[in-house]
Prior knowledge:
Blueprint: H1 6-16, H2 18-29, E1 32-35, E2 42-45, H3 48-56, E3 61-62, H4 63-66, H5 71-74, H6 84-94, H7 100-104, H8 107-118, E4 126-128, H9 130-146, H10 157-170, H11 184-206, H12 216-222, H13 231-262, H14 264-268, H15 270-274, H16 277-290, E5 297-301, E6 305-307, E7 310-312, E8 317-320, H17 322-325, H18 371-388, E9 389-393, E10 400-401, E11 407-408, E12 413-419
Parallel strand pairs: 2-8
Antiparallel strand pairs: 1-2, 3-5, 4-12, 5-8, 6-7, 9-12, 10-11
Bound molecules: protoporphyrin IX containing FE.
Amino acid sequence: MTLxxxxxxxxxxxxxxxxxxxxxxxxxxxxxxxxxxxxMRFWLTLxxxxxxxxxxxxxxxxWEQAFAALAPLTGPAALLVNDGDRHRRLRRxxxxxxxxxxxxxxxxxxxxxxETAMAGWAPGDVIDVYVPLRRALRLATLxxxxxxxxxxxxxxxxxxxxxxxxxxxxxxxxGAIERGSGSPVWRRALLARSSVHRWxxxxxxxxxxxxxxxxVLGVLLRGVDGDRLxxxxxxxxxxxxxxxxxxxxxxxxxxxxxxxxxxxxxxxxIRAVVSNPVALDRIVSETMRLHPATAVIxxxxxxxxxxAGQRFCPGDLLLFSPFHTHRVPSVWPEPERFDPRRWDPGxxxxxxxxxxxxxxxxxxxxxxxGANFAVMAVKAAFAALVGRVDGELLTTDARPAxxxxxxxxxxxxxxxxEKR
Length: 420
Ligand code: HEM
């Protein structure tokens, strides 16, 4: 009988629990660990130095290759599956929809959907708030992208998006953990993708191009300096914006509730905090440090290089992790502790993190294009909740699940004590 190799055992451990496995492997092996063998092989590249190397050397990696397996779901023109000049052009045309000023226009939309989600809550109710809040943020993202009128025509969309997200999250290693194409999850997602595609094309066709509107679709239709996206390109952007935006933001919001409600002192003081934008920013940063919704990011090697004594060749798949980096004790003292004061420049142990030490949205050319929207949405939703509801947190030890949309596996259960 042959024993399974260490690489296979570590792969199994990572598949079952990537979060603690990353931390264990970093302690055992340092920056580099190989997981799996043959076509299943990939590398964990962990720690601030590895992140710095990867992020400072974009030219060594290819997104197109890393995410090629996802292209049937995201569409070939999605930002995430493009490199070089094509990526630069697409990014130039998408970015104007997500400036700080533009995303502020969607604050009321987020607030309204969260208020609707809370409408039926009453003192004494025990609720897993993650479920209604995830739905509220999906609807808010949908409305911000397509406008209020599209909401009445959006039946089915929520389920389709959920199917797509499930496939992308299980296929985060480009098919290394679970070979995508044959699985029922993948087949379901492909069907969902074509339904979403048809829905988005119909929405584009409804628009009056001379007055495209101020939602994201309107901004994309308008173009920049005479350059315009084609209908297929717009469709791919919108499908992937919906997919990338809603689950991550909902996950981030529920971690924020969990962290703040656990800290009774902070929660007791929360109303003052919500009307204090600086304090609110620190809570957002600290939540994203401890529970970044995107727990790992992958890269495919395009050009040979050596990192921490290990030679990497074209085609090798690397994973680095905001989740892990944000918990390295040499960078973040008492990393497991939720402490928004560590973001206060006046505090004794304040240390401004380098970009590769705090990277919830990634860094560089592929940095999250929706970051401003995400921060606005999380803050607006949190303020709406805290302004109306008080509660007792019943979830005592929330375990994470998911890698691209890392969320509380068993939800966040709250007993409502007060509703205004
Ligand atoms: C808390 C919420 C969010 C988190 C933690 C997050 C995280 C990230 C990260 C880490 C990346 C970089 C991936 C890489 O380097 O390979 C990324 C890219 C991206 N994100 Fe987000 N994201 C969030 C919300 C959003 C929202 C709200 C949208 C849009 C509405 C969005 C759209 C995108 C897109 C399109 C990309 C690809 C950008 C490119 O390749 O140029 N994300 N996101």
